[in-house]
Amino acid sequence: MKVKSFKELIVWQKAMDLSEEVYRLSQVFPNHELYALTNQIRRAVVSVPSNIAEGQARSSTADFRQYLSIARGSLAEVETQLLLAIRFNYLSETDTTQAFDLIAQTGKMLNTLRKRVVSG
Q: Could you give the residue ranges of the DSSP H alpha helices within the chain?
């Protein structure tokens, strides 16, 4: 069955959940991080579902695969930035459990989908 819209992709839905969670978590970052880590992590997390959507909307499967790879890179960026937030004591490991679970699930789904998308 062909997907009619990126909104049907479970991986896109998970990435949206992750975006919501990271926005929630980053609200507690100190004000002096507003234009640094807060901005960076929010831009990275929004990039994940955005690239999935853009790739699915492209006309070639090669483009879709490329955008899924970009989404995977942004996901790694979010994970790194959450680890930094823990190191800087802005968040605890307990605070980030759900986000790291969503990162793992989304990453697995991205890898699986990328393998299934046939090069065009």
A: 10-26, 39-57, 61-87, 97-116
What b-and-e string marks burial along 52-91, b requiring 16 or more CB atoms within 10 Å of the CB? Answer: bbbbbeeeeeebbbebbebbbebbebbbebbeebeeeebb
> Hey, what domains does the chain have and what are their CATH numbers?
6-116 (1.20.1440.60)
| pLDDT tens by residue, 39-63 | 999 999 999 999 999 999 998 899 9
Q: Is the pLDDT of residue 27 over 70?
A: yes
Helical axes 97-116 vs 61-87, angle rounded to 10°:
160
Are 30 and 90 a contacting pair, CB within 8 Å? yes
> Counting beta carbons within 10 angstroms of the beta carbon of residue 44, is it exposed (0 to 12), middle (13 to 18) or buried (19 or more)?
buried
Helix 61-87 with 39-57: angle, nearest 10 deg: 160
Give the model's confidence band at 119: pLDDT under 50 very low, under 70 low, under 90 confident, else very high.
low
